[in-house]
Amino acid sequence: MNAAPLLTLPALRADLEILAGTPDASGTPTFVVYDPLQHRYFQIDRDTRKLFSHWRAGISVEELALAAGAHVSAAAFHADMARLIQFLRANNLTSEDRPDAWRELHDKARRSEKPLLGRLLGGYLFFRMPLLRPQRMLETLLPYVNFLFARQTIVVVGLIGLAGLYLVSRQWDLFVGSFEAVFSLRGSLHLLASLALVKIAHELGHAFTAVRYGCRVPTMGVAFMVLVPMLYTDVTDAWRLPSRRQRMLISAAGVAVELGLSMIATFLWAFLPEGAGRDIAFMIATGGWIMSLGFNLNPFMKFDGYYIFSEVLGIDNLQPRSFAFGRWKLRQLLFAPRLPAPEDLPRATRSVLVAYAWATWLFRLIAFTGIAILAYSYAFKLLGIVLFAVEIWLLVVRPIVREIKEWTELA
Fold first, then answer.
1. In this predicted model, what pLDDT tens digit does every residue of 97-139 receive, in sequence order?
2. What one-character-per-residue DSSP string does 144-196 give?
3. Cα–Cα–Cα angle for 176, 178, 183, rounded to 5 degrees
4. Is residue 39 within 8 Å of 216, Cβ to Cβ?
5. Cα atoms found within 13 Å of the Cα of residue 91, Cβ hemisphere only
6. Residue 165 needs a FRET pair 20 to 30 A away by CA distance; which of 248, 356, 372, 373 works?
7. Which position has the higher pLDDT, 406 or 87?
């Protein structure tokens, strides 16, 4: 039997940062590798962090195992290290000085490049347009908005909201009757203006909170989901924060701003005279509650509610990990009762992840089908049919087909 070929370690890039992460669901410490060139974060476990502390370019895997005191079989350690090195190279985290390294990078870039049709379809479903690099502006303005984070401000806004609800309750029929204004041309313009104001404030809430905790905000702009525009703020830097509470506050800041504006607008509506000002106050008052509670806090899509829910559970990369557990449980029930779990987690955590995965799949099936029907209804017929078919195939049918293929291998 031939011995495994000697595997030597590539050099890690000198500009990479290794930061303390948040403990995982079982309380085990984790770490984060930050790539400043790609502005990406990669979570690693404690054992991998220990390996990196003994990592030296050019030494063999066996020498690394000896230095790190790895208590596993040589064959298993060799296989694990081969996968780790492949992961590092695939994500451009190594500094290669081999003569053919450039050729590997070139070939990898060509393989990862999607065909034109795939890029068009992917762009139709989701793409981003960065508009601002706001870091300097946010740092300059932060001292002037710091009072908004004070407990006294939160209490005052809450009391204003309660007073507004009381005043509105005394004019409830008039308040509800204001919905009619939304369906007029003037009302539609007021609705667009109020939505723009609220959403800009929402994104600034994320941005200022992130900067307040020492994070960078490299871009703000517009994202398009199925050609529907929505503002976004890049707060990826929150991954460098070891505090789940701070990360959760960054995720919740936009919703908090919307609810605060809604409370103030509800109070102002009771005093403003008939006209544009009162219409806009009504739309901010109602829109803040509806958008925050019905849309932003939805944990089944990757909006604010998803990240808040992830931090509450203490589970990073919630959807990929929960989907793995959802597929595992489904396959276990149908074909393979002894199929091992994808991760060693407590029974209660597994149950939560399975329930979340299945609920997310059901929600997506309903939501994506509804979006596809809307795309068909509002586009001219030929384009509508194409858009409907694209969405149903990419978002509904293809994932089901892939899973059924896995079933056939297990059955």
1. 555 554 554 455 454 455 544 544 555 566 788 899 999 999 9
2. HHGGGGSHHHHHHHHHHHHHHHHHHHTTHHHHHHGGGGGGSHHHHHHHHHHHH
3. 120
4. no
5. 20
6. 248
7. 87
